[in-house]
Description:
The structure holds two protein chains of two kinds.
Chain A: H1 7-26, H2 42-64, H3 76-95, H4 97-109, H5 117-138
Chain B: H1 2-14, H2 17-35, H3 41-48, H4 57-82, H5 91-102, H6 106-139, H7 144-161, H8 166-180, E1 183-184, E2 191-192, H9 206-224, H10 243-265, H11 270-285, H12 298-313, H13 315-321, H14 327-338, H15 345-350, H16 352-373, H17 377-383, H18 388-407, H19 410-428, H20 433-456, H21 463-466, H22 468-485, H23 487-496
Antiparallel strand pairs in B: 1-2
Helix pairs in contact in B: 1-16, 2-4, 2-16, 3-4, 3-9, 3-14, 4-5, 4-6, 4-12, 4-14, 4-16, 5-6, 5-12, 6-10, 6-12, 6-13, 6-16, 7-8, 7-20, 7-22, 8-20, 9-18, 9-19, 10-11, 10-12, 11-12, 18-19
Amino acid sequence: MIRVKNPQDFWSGALFIAFGAIALWVGRNYNMGSIVRMGPGYLPRFLSAALVAIGLFLAVRGVAINGPSIQPSLYRPQIFILLAIVVFGLMIERFGLAPAVLVTTVFAALASDEIQWKETTVLAVGMSITSVVLFIYLLGQTMEKWTWGF
Amino acid sequence: MELLQNLALGFGGAVSPINLLFCLFGCLIGTLIGVLPGIGPIATIAMLLPITFGLSPLGALIMLAGIYYGAQYGGSTTAILLKLPGESSSVVTCIDGYEMAQKGRAGAALTIAAVGSFFAGTVGTLLIAGFAPILASFAEKFRSPEYFSLMLFGLIAAVVLAQGSIIKAIGMIVLGLLLGLTGTESQSGTARFTFGVPELYDGIDFVPLAMGLFGFAEIMTNLDRRGRDRATAAPVGGMMPTREEIRRSIPAILRGTFIGSLLGILPGGGAVLSAFAAYTLEKKIAKDPSIFGRGAVEGVAAPESANNAGAQTSFIPLLTLGIPSTPVMALMMGAMTIQGIAPGSAILTERPELFWGMIASMWVGNLMLVIINLPLIGIWIKLLQVPYRLLFPCILVLCCVGAYSISSSTFLVMMMAGFALLGYVFAKIGCEGAPFLLGFVLGPLMEENFRRSMVLSFGDPVIFVQRPISLTILLAAVALILLIVIPQFRSTREVAFQDP
């Protein structure tokens, strides 16, 4: 079993390799052209290959040389923040701005373990009203205030 | 005399009631995010970008610029009173500012920071007014090879000046360049990396990317460190510095302003680096370096002047060359593009009222900020008491609605969630977001200019070293690379970015 001595470097490397490899695969059919007449595939391929090379270097260095470890995550904040954004995306067109903001605020507040329900309710209602007034009335954005349509 | 005429034109535009209002609004928001720890100017400007769609071009730019330099003022308040960097550019102010507060000199530290910032802001603004036209007329000689070389120089500078690992910074730039190429390729019409999603045909939208990568990643990182950021503000005390404090801070303010103005122009420099460099210099030249860390007034005056000077002069590359040198400037460029203004030397010749209006507004804004920050300090201290658990849901909601409103697209909201996760992972593994964002913005521009250069030279890459200006820029880039190799510079670089 290989022991990773510098997890930050190692995982940066892994991430770069993954992005580079995906870009190489997705862009495999783009026309290369030549340095003189660069096709749409020239720069992407060059950059993807460079990214994989940098990634390999970092990954190898991460295994070989000691370095800082990765600070542990709590997971709760990350899960609820991401969930809140996704919930907004799912609700805004089906239910309109006010309900979407209401639910999103609650999900966002859940990201902190200091959440207080009374306070959160007031905040959610306040944010719904504020965003309707700000975005729809003041800024004139075309969004539904609320709707039941699907 | 032409300068006076131009400034008169600028003030004519900037002091109209509505633009004064935008300026005040920008400065207030800027101070607010500067005071509140955990919200940066990048995320805030991205958040407010959709709101500026409906404003006049001058009004929009005045407001967004106000947020940026306003944050430099506000950041010092939190740094001095709480030892928390309200803004990343105030990190070094924490050290001696907080020590001063412990000795009951918080008020004096705040006054010196604000006055130093005002002086630096005035000098920075004058520098833009004086040098931008010269640089802009010089830039009119630029063709594609020069632009390509300049952008290359910019990216190299961003690597050299980035914090942390150099190789990771290069990786982030390459990743940014690659992502920037997403969308329909201009020559052949090939859709690159779009996965058949119509929203991606015009490229990845900048606003959700910046909000996800900087705003949300910041929130998630902050929530991981719960409990640590709770502190009570030190009492402010008398605002008036003593004669001795004034005597010591004047030269420090001058040096800080000089360093900040210089480093602000460099790509990747801006406010953060300026503050670090100014503090390091003060420590180096002090007769007794041991006073630093124990409430040295120079340790507040120099970095606070430097970060504001840097914030002002970082506008120069954008306004004269059309090249953003920092993530905030990339956002300003986005705002200009949305308003139908091509950033670069053309602003000066075609839209002088806009250019000079913005410059005049910067000075007016700096003046407003002194008032906002000194007599009204009590209000900002009150705001510091607002708990983070109430703050971040509001930011999140505003970002979501803002991202959706760009083109009424759910896809952009979902994409923002993706970038939020990516930004959080980057932060965890020590990868800097700033080089990534610069690469993202410059990617398509570099490809285009490289291709045009090849057309210009009938396919001979020698063109980049044949043209004198382009050659000079490339040589400067080589010099920068050599700097990294020199061990002495490397160690200085590491010291400069060390957590103080």
